Amino acid sequence: MNKKTVIIGATTNPSRYAYFAADRLTNAGHEIVPVGIKKGEVFGEQILDIRKSPKVDNVDTVTLYLGARHQPEYYDYLLSLNPKRIIFNPGTENPELVNLAKEKGIETEYACTLVMLGSGVY
């Protein structure tokens, strides 16, 4: 099943986990929407500028590759995407955002998108 996934912290740098996630998600047949501060294209999708709060509809999953200290200024934006779930990848754990998400009925997971894809539980 295709799960439209917004990648927060998307990058064109092939040594970053956000890049690996974009590759793996695309190969697994999921639609990706890369969002970040970097410019460029990832697997045929333009990286949208998070500072402009790009509108994205029908989001299944937000996968975070943005450290907790950089997240607060984007709380409203992340929650406005109204995803079914937010995956906090290692290094992005944030109890405050977890609580805000849960208040809106958004499922949260401290997990690794790459491991979830690899083990078939994405």
Biggest β-sheet strands, sense, barrel: 6 strands, parallel
Number of domains: 1
Q: Say how many strands there are.
A: 8
Q: What structural class should be given to the helix and strand makeup?
A: alpha/beta
Kindly identify the CATH topology.
Rossmann fold
Looking at the structure, what is the overall shape?
globular
Per DSSP, the total helix count is: 4
Q: Overall mean pLDDT score?
A: 97
As laid out across the biggest beta sheet, the strand order is 5-2-1-6-7-8
Multimeric organization: single chain
List SSEs in N-to-C order.
Answer: EHEEEEEHEHEH
Overview of this protein structure:
The protein is α/β, with parallel strands linked by helices and 122 residues long. It has a single domain, classed as Rossmann fold (3-Layer(aba) Sandwich). Helix content is 26%, strand content 22%. It has 4 helices and 8 strands. It has a 6-stranded parallel beta sheet with strand order 5-2-1-6-7-8, sandwiched between helices. A two-stranded antiparallel sheet has the order 3-4. Strand 3 (41-42) and strand 4 (45-46) form a beta hairpin. The longest helix is centred in the N-terminal third of the chain and has 11 residues, at 17-27. It is globular. It starts with a strand and ends with a helix.
Topology, element by element:
Elements: E1 5-8, H1 17-27, E2 32-36, E3 41-42, E4 45-46, E5 48-49, E6 61-64, H2 75-80, E7 85-88, H3 95-103, E8 107-110, H4 113-118
Parallel strand pairs: 1-2, 1-6, 2-5, 6-7, 7-8
Antiparallel strand pairs: 3-4
InterPro entries: CoA-bd, NAD(P)-bd_dom_sf
Domain CoA-binding: 3-117
Protein name: CoA-binding domain-containing protein
